[in-house]
Amino acid sequence: MASQNEVLFAKDSVYIHINVQDTKDKDAHIAGRVYLMKKPEGNFIEWKAEECLSHDIQNDEWDVIGSVGFRNDRDSECVSMNAKMDARRKYNISFDVLDLKSFKRNAPNHSWAYIIFILKDGTTFPALHFHNGGSKALLKELETFIHIRRSPNDQRLFIVHDHDPEMLSKSFNELSIFSDSSSAYVQKFKFMKDPYTATMGGFSKVTNFFNNFMAPENLTRPQSEMAEFLHEDIPGMEISNLDEPGFEMVTKTKLPPRPVVKRSEHLGLAKWNSFFDSDGTISQVEEVKEIIFRGGVDPAIRSDVWKFLLGFYDWDSTTKKRQEQRKRKVDDYFRMKLQWKTISSEQERRFTFLKERRGLIDKDVTRTDRTHKFFSGDKNPNLQVLYDILMTYCMYNFDLGYVQGMSDILAPILVVMENEVDAFWCFAGAMERVCHNFEMDQNGMKVQLSQIHKLMQVYDPELCAYLESHDSGNFYFCFRWILIMFKREFHFHEIQRLWEVIWTDLPCQNFHLIISLAILDSEKSTLMENKFGFTEILKHINDISLSIPLEDTLCKAEGIFLQLKEFKKLPKAVKEVLGLLPVPVSQSMENSVFIGAASNTDVKSQDSASRVDTPQLMGGISSSSSISVNGSRSSHSLGGKQNSIIDEGSKILT
Fold first, then answer.
1. The Rab-GAP TBC domain covers which part of the protein (predicted)?
2. Which residues are 16's β-sheet partners?
């Protein structure tokens, strides 16, 4: 510590908890020391990992970095030690107490007290866990510099009061400006002559921002710049605040009480085996899905269960039929793999699309979930399997090809399957569910962001109005959630549980949108009482990544669904999102026929009528097929394109 700095408070045994499941490191809880420092430039809260305490610090500014650098540290013990210190140093924290906007503190009855500091710019630091006490003492010292009050809406949240009269006046002026312009807040986007270029450019910027948000170089990027391109560079992504046809605006909603929902036991081996008949057919499919929805799947049988959830096998298939399906899928996979494996360098030189996609896959494979033990190490053979599956998918679905983010979807599936062929076909089934997020006309994303807006208007008009008046009614901050199905928001083992819950299509096909509502409901007090604007909301939502409690969120989401379902005056548009409208008989009959994963002549059972299975690569696809897009169905004429898996509108950004 520099001599001119004065330590006002110090406490050791203060830990940052990282994900135990994703690493073999026994030090999954990083020990450190928290300080309240008086410096010439102000008073600072700082936390430093213990490994860093015995080394010279040439720079007093300790930053929180949300990504991990990867290198081969096996050359020497010295390099390994330095790498370990670097990995821990990235969690170091330092901020001026005057930049503190609020903090969260857990209830006293929890095991260890922890504090989460939130800054005025929306930065949310990792929770500091006080294993040997000291949190109250720190806050008492902190109160000598700032005024703190407890939130009336959230007992865990404490707001920092700013009593500067000039700043208060400025805040009122800003609120006045917001009020004057709120009715015209909807952004007017620029349309270019080339809509494809405009679409791809806008999506590329947004995707790159969200995918790379936690990288060190992005921490210093002005939030206003990010907000600007989010507003201006996504043509057609606006969400009008005017009533849409058939949508009755609800300004004052009195919903019935939200029921308390509890999670249940997961689907275990004994229970799973009990559902198979003598010929291997699964009986009571809906009961199986209900158990999965309530508690997930035991990891020991996850690979078997996922094959049914993702269309690798039909729910009504016998053991013999599944053996035939698997053999056919193995043959199809290696035939497709051989197609790109046997392309010569001379051919590839004239095959621009394949060359470009190979380059993208090369780049993404080297940085996908490298902290997970399954993918760690420079010469890990699983990286080659990841690469081969993604390249083969380009041949399977050449219209779609490869897009940044697909490796995020494949990685958890490959970890579960531990088999190249199984992982490929399950990945193809998972992509059928999310490919519409990347349509060239952006319809998939526009529809879902608009649906979140509709749900929020009914569920919490107050929060919805706040977001609209702070340039966030477009719900762009939910973009990454929807794009890759919360992959970056939860720990690796949690995303497996979340996805299998979503894949049951219970209680509706748009349950992922209700999950978004549940997360926002938990963050409501933080957003509103801190008076966050667009850039701060965006920053805060990204900072809570990997700290969202999964089980609590699932319980709240189901409770919200049941609460909305019981509301007698639910608008028709919301009923449609929640799947509560009766399906016409003609449409029901049409929707009972699906594109088959194993055979183009398969007709799905009623139990699988809420899911789209993986299309057959070379099979004859019917000229008119009904494809599910997040709860609503649209007919796509495929004509004679028997080798086309996704319609032309499903091309996405590169």
1. 296-506
2. 30
Together in a domain, 205 and 327: no
Tokens representing 34 are 């928290």
For residue 139, count CB atoms less than 10 angstroms from its CB and return exposed for 0-12, middle for 13-18, buried for 19 or more.
middle
Residues 225, 309 within the same domain: no
pLDDT digits (tens, 9 = 90+) for 182-228: 333 333 333 333 333 333 344 444 444 444 443 433 333 454 544 44
Task: For residues 424 and 450, state if they share a domain.
Answer: no
Same domain, 151 and 238: no
For tokens 């890990």, the residue is 380
Residues 52 and 44: their CA atoms lie apart, in Å, by 18
| Inside any domain, residue 634 | no
Of 389, 391, 449, 380, nearest to 414 (Cα)?
A: 389
Give the three-class secondary structure for 95. strand
Q: Which residues contact 241 (CB under 8 A, 6 or more apart)?
A: 185, 186, 468, 473
Q: How far is CA 43 from CA 269, 352, 569, in A?
A: 57, 57, 53
Q: What is the pLDDT of residues 335-392, one digit of tens each?
A: 999 999 999 988 988 888 888 899 999 999 999 999 999 999 888 999 999 999 999 9
Helix (H, G, I), strand (E, B) or coil at 15: strand
CA count, 13 A, side-chain hemisphere, 73:
15
Residue 419 belongs to some domain of the structure = yes
Q: Is the dihedral of CA 419, 485, 574, 634 positive or negative?
A: negative
pTM, entire model: 0.65
Residue 275 in any domain: the answer is: no
CATH code, domain carrying 419: 1.10.8.270
